[in-house]
């Protein structure tokens, strides 16, 4: 009887350990969950949305290294929604939309973004809640001189264009700092109404 009990305990412990290892593997290399804490990506992402991020799509990175890639993937493309280590504080994760990639030129004139000298027109997700246009000598929010995105870097912005702390203010994101691409909302909690946003659960992100 004692042997049977020990065997059952051992099987349970082994099952738990295997489950933990599988969960850690999935979280490290394939999919990870993130929570949206701010309104910089409104209306695409609401405060309280919880999203899934594909960590495999941009390549499998070796843990505890400076972004060294084990299995290569695709490079981020314009309009991808990416999660990355905040350049000014790598302990924090940020989520923004890719606006331009390495080799692209970028310029902002009175809120209008130009990539490779062509205005970006098809941005249904971009919102402007502040009608003011602030000159470039005061801030780079609405006006920014032409720049070229360096190799292995991307330029990102929040969809809430007038209220987003992004590449306009702190610069580029290195490809090695990208955690993955956001692809789905799996849970959404509205703390103001203390309720679940059922209509958002399962929504794919574009």
Structure characterization notes:
This protein is of the alpha+beta class and 206 residues long. The chain has one domain (32-200): Umud Fragment, subunit A, CATH 2.10.109. It has helices at residues 2-30, 167-170; strands spanning 31-35, 49-54, 59-61, 69-72, 81-85, 93-101, 105-109, 112-115, 118-119, 144-148, 153-157, 173-174, 178-190, 195-196. Strands 1, 2, 5, 6, 11, 12, 13 and 14 form an eight-stranded antiparallel beta sheet that branches. The chain has a four-stranded antiparallel beta sheet with strand order 9-8-7-10, with no helix packed on it. A two-stranded antiparallel sheet has the order 3-4. The longest helix is centred in the N-terminal third of the chain and has 29 residues, at 2-30. It starts with a helix and ends in a 10-residue tail after the last strand.
